[in-house]
Specification:
Elements: E1 3-6, H1 16-28, H2 39-42, H3 47-57, H4 63-77, H5 86-96, E2 100-103, H6 108-117, E3 126-128, H7 141-149, E4 157-161, H8 164-172, E5 176-179, H9 188-191, E6 196-197, H10 204-208
Parallel strand pairs: 1-2, 1-4, 2-3, 4-5, 5-6
Helix pairs in contact: 1-4
């Protein structure tokens, strides 16, 4: 029997779009424009990965202040909500008795906070945050850890992802990956890695019914 692993940001929860203006805002406070454009490049990375990216590309940036400012912006302006079709899909998996894990590049504490706000923690048999693994996406570590926690072999796992880094991570882990593009469209290279591409999670049950 197959198991399912979800990415969180931009796949399960609509959190990526608020990050773009948040990063733009935090960058402008330090006189740097256009930092919102980084989101497409760092999607799926854990904090260590995206921190390294902004240090490399913005060497004058005060990184601790940037993090404080963008998180403050999100706290003031962001509303955590499900992506279209997400809640119904999780209910479907629960009813089927399918093992489900969450593997997010976001810090575990933030992941748990988001899930608690939406009262959906019970949908998951395991949750892995980006600060719990050494190598973030596109390395396979986070998906392999999630699979181990639910007692599933990599080849038995179907992953839902929205980012190029996440898709590469799932494929590197030896898993089937279903892609749902969010803030960035998929290149032909990424499309070739996918088991299936959907417009949103509302289309997922039709695909999953063939394999679960």
């Amino acid at each position: 029997m197959h198991s399912v692993i979800f990415d969180m940001d931009g796949t399960l929860l609509d959190t990526q779009r608020i990050c773009i203006p948040a990063w733009e805002y935090a960058g402008r406070l330090q006189g740097i424009n256009g930092m919102g454009g980084c989101i497409e490049k760092v999607c799926g990375m854990n904090e260590a990965g995206w921190t390294a990216h902004i240090i490399d590309n913005y060497p004058t940036l005060n990184v601790p202040k940037f993090k404080e400012d963008y998180r403050g912006y999100i706290k003031q302006n962001g509303t955590i909500k499900f992506m279209p079709g997400a809640e119904k899909l999780m209910q479907f998996l629960k009813e089927k008795g399918i093992k489900v894990a969450l593997a997010s590049g976001t810090r575990k504490a933030t992941v748990l906070s988001h899930l608690k706000k939406l009262n959906c923690e019970d949908y998951f048999d395991a949750i892995v945050g980006g600060d719990e693994i050494k190598n973030g996406k596109p390395a396979p570590d986070i998906f392999l850890k999630a699979a181990a926690l639910i007692g599933a072999k990599p080849e038995e796992c179907i992953v839902f992802e929205d980012s190029a880094n996440g898709i590469r991570s799932a494929v590197n882990a030896g898993m089937k990956c279903i892609g749902i593009p969010d803030v960035a469209k998929f290149t032909e290279e990424i499309k070739d890695l996918l088991f299936a591409e959907l417009n949103n999670l509302s289309e997922a049950t039709e695909v999953l019914n063939k394999y679960l």
